[in-house]
Amino acid sequence: MNEIVAALPLVGSVMWTCRPRPPVRRLTPGEPTVSTTSTTRRRPWPRRRPPTPDPIALAHWCEGIARCVRGGDALRTAVDRPPDDASITAIVEAIRRHIADPHRTQLTPDAALVAAVVSACLDQGGPSAEPLDRAAGVLRARAAERDERRVQSAQARLSAVVLTWLPVVVLVLLVVTSDEVRRVVTTPIGVMLVAAGSLLNLAGWWWMRRIVERASR
């Protein structure tokens, strides 16, 4: 029974590390705040996270609009056409809503770039194929830069994984192979030490993950 109690912090550490993580939300400037009155403070409703687009698929969509415009279609007609890649249907709908009302829909930086280019072309008129092609080129360059940063941070991410799991594996091996370690971890002080070490290990894992993700954005 004491061995089971001592192993609970390790199980919690493993479950916390392996939990599913939602995609990182990138905040955009100009997000409206919730107004409050002097008498009551209303709790803001949770905002819906904007879908994260694939920049390469979004670049293909921009190039498809440019081809349609060069073929004689109106820009509005080309924008209203459904995308060839169904994975970006949600973000394309968000871009259309943002073009209709910029203060209603929040977009990711890549989608905001496309929306700004399309809005400028619709408002100012003139040739719109070249700006769309340039926007597609910028999206491809951003995707290549993000991939490069992710490759450069691979060693740091691997180090974070190793430093997180190495203490857990070593402790499990010592508990299995050493009678003295088993006697120590089954005492109240040993359980407290294992719990404190697990919490510190989780804190270090969270901090390393935060640093690496911020550097690889």
TrEMBL record:
It comes from the Bacteria. The chain crosses the membrane at residues 158-177, 189-208. Residues 40-50 have a biased composition (Basic residues). Residues 24-52 are annotated as: Disordered. The keyword Transmembrane helix applies. Keywords: Membrane, Transmembrane, Transmembrane helix. This is Type II secretion system (T2SS) protein F.
